[in-house]
Structure formats: C-alpha cells, structure tokens
Amino acid sequence: MKYLYLVRHAKSSWADVAQADFDRPLNERGQRDAPVMAARLQQRGVQPDLLVTSTARRALKTCKLFAAAWQVQESVIVQQPQLYLAAPPVFARVVQQLPQTCNHVLVFAHNPGITEFANQLTNVRIDDMPTCAVFALAFHTNSWQEWQKADTEFLFFDYPKLQQ
Asked: What's residue 79's pLDDT?
C-alpha cells in the first residue's frame, strides 16, 4: 500500500500587499494551525517517509512546521518548484516519480490545483481545501509508478476548523 496525504499550505499573510505571491509568509494562525494538523495526523498513526513541497515560502514553511512537530529531519523534505500553483497533471507526475521506498508521503501545495487534483482521485468531492487541510488516500499498490491504475481508497479529509 502507498499512502498520499495532500496538504494545502497554512494560512498566509497579506500584510504586505506589494509582496510577491510566491514570497508570502504564514500569518499567526497559519503558524498555529500547522503543528495542530501535524499532531492530528500523528494521532491517526501517520508517520511520513517523505515530505514533498512547493518552494513557495508559505508551503515550505508549512512543511517545515509539520517536520518539526514530528521531529523528523529536514532531509526528508523534497522541494519541487513545479508544485507552485500546479495543475492536476503536475501533481500526477510528482506522485508518479516518488521513490518506491517511501510508503507515506505528504505533498504540500496550493489551491486551486490541490483541490482539483484531490477531486480527480476518488468519488469524494470537496468544494475547496481550506488552508492547512489534509486529504488522505491509500493506493492498493506497491509502486508509485502504478498508482493511477491501482484501486484508490479515500481515508479522511481534515482541516483546522473541523470539530474533532
């Protein structure tokens, strides 16, 4: 089995409206929400082998906050510039190229592409992935190269404002 957790970056700051979109940092809520969501995943037994992230500042920071909450080395973080504002086919290529040795992978990226990609993977439909949301899937395969042909199982959808 291969497990994929799609994570939208945490809430970003719009304090400097002149700042380039790519360079926007997380706001205070985003900095609070990321460790909370990492803890919720830990409570579900998720222990990542690999964290793959957009290189945009807010996505990379969200990823690093998850890594810190799990006390995993930053060496398990792979930065993928193509995930910045990516369309679903880009996500598909990134997943296809994941190392076979990794079974639990988190991908940190942006809307609208991450929501569109999530909606293509199962019959579960979401209108919008809120900031720091996690959409979790299992693929009944031992190969990331075969993930698109595998039976896909929706596991859960969680986000900071969802009451636990």
From this structure: 98
